[in-house]
Amino acid sequence: MATNAPQVIPDLIANLVKGEGGEPVRRDAGLGLLRRQLGRIQGEVQRAFEAQQLTGLAAARWLAALNDGLLHAILAYAQALNPPKSAAEAAEPPFALVATGGYGRGVLAPFSDIDLLFLSDRPLGARGRRVVEAMLYLLWDIGQKVGHATRSIDECLEDAAGDVTVQTALLDARFLFGERAIFERFDARFAEWRKGTGFDPFLHAKRAERQARHQRYGDSPFLVEPHIKEGRGGLRDIQTLHWLARYAFGIRRLGELVGPASPGGGLLTVHEERAIHRAWDFLWTVRFHLHYGAGRAEERLTFDMQPVIGARMGYTRHGRQDGVERFMKHLFLTVRDVVRLYRLLEPAIVRAALGPVAVVPPSDPALAAAGFALADGKLILAPNRSFSDEPVLMLRIIRAARDRGLELHPLALRALIRSTRYANRLRGQAEANAAFLDILLGKDPARWLRVLNEAGFLSRFMPDWARITGLMQFDTYHVFTVDEHTIEAISVLRQLENGELNEVAPVASEIAPQLDSRRALHVATLLHDIAKGRGGDHSELGARIAQDLCPTLGLTAEETETVSWLVLHHLLISQTAFKRDIEDPKTILDIADLVQSPERLKLLMVLTVSDMRAVGPKVWNGWKATLLRELYWRVAEVLAGGLSVPERDVRVRRARQAVAALLADRPQEEVDRFLGLGYPGYWLSFDAETHARHAALIREAQLNKAPLTVRTRVLESRAVTEVLVYAADHPGVFSRIAGALAVAGASIVDARIHTMTDGMALDTFWVQDASGRVFEQPHRLARLSVLIEQALSGRLKLEQEIAKVRREPARLRAVTVPPRVVIDNHASSSHTVIEVNGRDRPGLLHDVTAAISEQGVQIASAHITTYGVRAVDVFYVKDLFGLKIENERRLASLRARLLAALAPPEPEGGVAVPVRRQKNAA
């Protein structure tokens, strides 16, 4: 069905140009004919493609060929509309209509531009310029996007000399219509010009262009919202290989590089050429679906489009893996193949074009004895050595390059990629294990692990690694695929050991260099997500995999047990810090009982920081660092036999004594009055300095008889803003304040709710802005205070105002978060703990807390965490009598009401429900 040959449309031309005299129809009638023909072309290709009669590449070629025919008709019509006005115009030299760019390669995406060159031997005359102008206006008027240039052959070569973009466009030049002899003269002269200019300048320009493109669109091929066209491993990288080969050898397609008689003597094998074609075809298929699905020239595969494209391409759920995850894994494996093929083919093209490298023995005798040499100052295999005969050389060359500060020569990378299938011989081999662990624990491990991963070595060396290669999780929390995230975690771990993160993670940076179990920690970081994508708890499954895998890597029984334990509990610290009340003694004691060892606590802390910072640039912030640090020191003190969790009454007494000492300059009656205001839970929730600030605020409010006091304080070190609200307690206070904060654009990360003995509420919220930074602009802080006052007085229509801010980018709407409510009566000795999971939205906390209070439940504290679009909110609650909620019927009612609150709101919003609050009784 598809062809690259121009398809002439004689009937259309006959309808546009009537009779033997070539009389054109009126322009408006002609436009109607052309628009209908363009619609038929686009519709015919789309129907065939979506019926799976065509792959993406075949559809792109057919669409280009059909467009060729349309252009032929437009050219004939433009010429008829502009007959010669004089004998001189009739004698004007002809021109050639040439396709350039992607269209010149004979492929066209549904909504892409078409690039045209009007080529002549010398500058066009008056009629020629009118014909060109008429063609362009006709194309624009029927809705085509056109890039165009009008040049003579000399002008083409002159412009090419100063602009690599022009050189590249001309490389793809393809004759369409007009005077073929002109195009052939250009083609010959351009080939001679390339030969005279040399390959090296073009190579350097393309390398710089590729590097800049990757920096702009993502230097990792494993970003979870990839750019299909411009990203690393995308269509543009394959096109760049085509340009390099075309410039160097004059070929039209990469398949011409196969076989000993081909240019360069066989730079590609049949298998590699097929792999390039498969990747090219798959990416074009994705691109076509993306254009049709978006209804425009969309090249970025965003979250909202991923399930759409996956479904269009027939990916369905298989086992425990969703169709969209299967589709994205296929995409990432394809992208990785493109990266590998680029590294394989580019150096071969370069060497064939510029001549063989001069391989010289290294000055280091040990390096020469190991089987390596130097070429262009980079490390390469010695002429008499091969990876296939000695697979361990694949690890040795990485280690040698690292130790001597050398780069791998591109030809060495080429040989490595072609030989990774021999890595399975190294499993369990002592020398290979030692070399691999040395790479993992040595200098810049992430750099070399990425080389091994992209080459395909890791998947062969550790079969379990292949399961996570290219695996993405369909959420907005993780930025990378699982394998890339893991390597990034190794990079963060090394930064912690080097002291490069002292400012952002001081505790982990301090303890990382002191660890005795360094090998176990690095291997645990490598394996912490090894079981993702298998269904079930990836921590438990990963722990079992670690028990089997670690001995084959050469770890001792004790190291294996440590690695397995770390993988099993690698989420313990973060989940506790962000989901539990670390002021609750049971929280600290439970972790201490599980960890038992100070060394294991240190290992967990460093692994936690490495894991979190590797998720993405927006995940880590000062507030999370503070919570982790406080949890670590409290558990460490317990493990050291300290008194961080003494008896409750003792801790309360000490807290009251500490604040009394700070208030020693105040009248004793005033101090006693303040000390009588707080229930035990209040005294255990803050340090003495904070209690003193509260005392000053309460005294000022009482003197001024203020019904409401709002104070804000920016805490730069914690990357949060503290919002303190002191007001008369009444049902609905917490929910209304949460709603006001949502309207103000503040995101709550933690909260403490306290009702004093005199019935006043003292609530503390820690907030950030929507991007996870400090909420600090003066005008926003002032508005926040006003909104709280309006919400508590009833003058702010919360439901209507929250509805106005419930907007999110379309690309995020496709990510679903099933609502989930977990009620736990064992996590705390004094409270029922409610964990709510759902899709985050402005006002969610308002809705959830309203639902809790509707059930007659008092909230003691709230712990708010978001993972992308997933909200995980945890509440410590009691009933109206200050007891845990243990009645099953009541718990079922509470769960049902919370699930209803997590459901997407109606357009007009819900009705606020009054919130009762906790009196922090002993």
UniProtKB/TrEMBL annotation:
Keyword Transport part of the UniProt annotation: no
InterPro entries cross-referenced by the UniProt entry: ACT-like_dom_sf, ACT_dom, HD/PDEase_dom, HD_domain, NT_sf, PII_UdlTrfase/GS_AdlTrfase, Polymerase_NTP_transf_dom, UTase/UR
GO biological process: one example: regulation of nitrogen utilization
Domain ACT: 722-803, 833-920
Annotated region (Uridylyltransferase), positions in chain: 1-366
Cofactor: Mg(2+)
Origin: domain of life: Bacteria
Regulation: Uridylyltransferase (UTase) activity is inhibited by glutamine, while glutamine activates uridylyl-removing (UR) activity.
GO MF assignments: [protein-PII] uridylyltransferase activity; phosphoric diester hydrolase activity
HD domain sequence ranges: 482-598
Gene3D superfamilies for this protein: 3.30.70.260, Beta Polymerase, domain 2 (3.30.460.10), cca-adding enzyme, domain 2 (1.10.3090.10)
Enzyme Commission code(s) on record: 2.7.7.59, 3.1.4.-
Catalytic activities: [protein-PII]-L-tyrosine + UTP = [protein-PII]-uridylyl-L-tyrosine + diphosphate; [protein-PII]-uridylyl-L-tyrosine + H2O = [protein-PII]-L-tyrosine + UMP + H(+)
Pfam families attached to this UniProt entry: ACT_ACR9_3rd (PF24931), GlnD_UR_UTase (PF08335), HD (PF01966), NTP_transf_2 (PF01909)
Keywords, sorted A to Z: Hydrolase, Magnesium, Multifunctional enzyme, Nucleotidyltransferase, Repeat, Transferase
Family stated for the protein in its record: Belongs to the GlnD family.
Function field: Modifies, by uridylylation and deuridylylation, the PII regulatory proteins (GlnB and homologs), in response to the nitrogen status of the cell that GlnD senses through the glutamine level. Under low glutamine levels, catalyzes the conversion of the PII proteins and UTP to PII-UMP and PPi, while under higher glutamine levels, GlnD hydrolyzes PII-UMP to PII and UMP (deuridylylation). Thus, controls uridylylation state and activity of the PII proteins, and plays an important role in the regulation of nitrogen metabolism.
PANTHER family from the UniProt entry: BIFUNCTIONAL URIDYLYLTRANSFERASE/URIDYLYL-REMOVING ENZYME, BIFUNCTIONAL URIDYLYLTRANSFERASE_URIDYLYL-REMOVING ENZYME
HAMAP family, per the entry: PII_uridylyl_transf
Domain writeup: Has four distinct domains: an N-terminal nucleotidyltransferase (NT) domain responsible for UTase activity, a central HD domain that encodes UR activity, and two C-terminal ACT domains that seem to have a role in glutamine sensing.
Protein name: Bifunctional uridylyltransferase/uridylyl-removing enzyme
Highest classification ranks of the organism: Bacteria, Pseudomonadati, Pseudomonadota, Alphaproteobacteria, Acetobacterales
Gene from which the chain derives: glnD
